[in-house]
Design a protein that fits this description.
248 residues; 39% helix; binds adenosine-5'-diphosphate
């Protein structure tokens, strides 16, 4: 297993909310797990715990067999490289003052790649991988459409060859046609690079399109888990049935 989440609990004292309550699941290599649930069900909190941005009260996140809360120095750096996140708002995830070329170079430089020629070629390869022409190098984020911006954000996260990408409502801000293009891009990259995805969305059509397996969250708990077709065609939990019926 690439990722194992065991019994995660998170309570926020300020709001007195049990944001996560005994959440467990696993994710294999080149697999996509869809995480669905309404706003406030704990999806983003789960993403933050997996990325080690906040600590759990109880439970463990194991990545490649190692407890991420115990990683130190080089192992932690390696984890930060291998696990990336794509956010909902593409404009907010890119520095507005930096040109696309520099946005894409930055993580490479921080990881020790300094040779100008190599960096130039790497940027070309990344733009190509996300289906943008080399002319995009000199653009600033506000000279990009929402879809182009998200492509740059994706190019940036794949630059360090991650194993796992957490997509937190990654296409929710895009209109339907662009959404479909970006979802296809995610799928092609998965196929080419053997990436695993945690695909978090309140949009069940997106979850159905992308996922091999699905978990449905409600009030911080996993109320249903299973292969995609089983969850969508034969849901067991009344809450899943209710969610599915809301779409029609
Ligand atoms: P989702 O991503 O499914 O919309 P969240 O994980 O953002 O849900 O939130 C789950 C619950 O935890 C919500 O009720 C939210 O208000 C609460 N919550 C999230 N983050 C914090 C925080 N930093 N402090 C206090 N309460 C929080």
């Amino acid at each position: 297993m690439l990722l194992e989440v065991r019994g995660l609990k998170k309570y926020f004292k300020t709001t007195k909310i049990q944001a996560l309550d005994k959440v467990s699941f696993s994710l294999g290599r080149a697999e996509t797990l869809g995480i669905a649930g309404e706003s406030g069900s704990g999806k983003s909190t789960l993403a933050k715990l997996i990325l080690r941005l906040i600590p759990p009260d109880e439970g463990h996140v194991l990545f490649e067999g190692n407890d991420v809360s115990r990683l130190k120095e080089n192992d932690l750096k390696d984890f930060r490289r291998k696990v990336q996140i794509v956010f909902q708002e593409p404009y907010h995830s890119l520095d507005p003052r930096m040109r696309v070329e520099d946005i894409l170079k930055e993580p490479l430089i921080l990881n020790g790649q300094r040779e100008k020629k190599d960096l130039y070629q790497k940027v070309s390869g990344l733009l190509k991988a996300v289906e943008l022409s080399d002319g995009f190098r000199s653009r600033l984020p506000h000279h990009l459409s929402g879809g182009e911006c998200q492509r740059v954000a994706i190019a940036r996260v794949i630059s360090l060859e991650p194993r796992l990408i957490v997509c937190d409502e990654a296409v929710s801000a895009l209109d339907a046609i662009v959404q479909a293009q970006i979802l296809n891009l995610f799928m092609r990259l998965q196929h080419e690079k053997g990436l695993s995805y945690l695909f978090i969305s309140h949009d069940l059509r997106v979850i159905r399109h992308m996922s091999d397996r699905v978990i449905i969250m409600r009030d911080g708990q996993v109320c249903e888990e299973g292969p995609r077709d089983q969850v969508f065609k034969n849901p067991q939990h009344s809450y899943t049935k209710e969610l599915l019926s809301k779409r029609h």
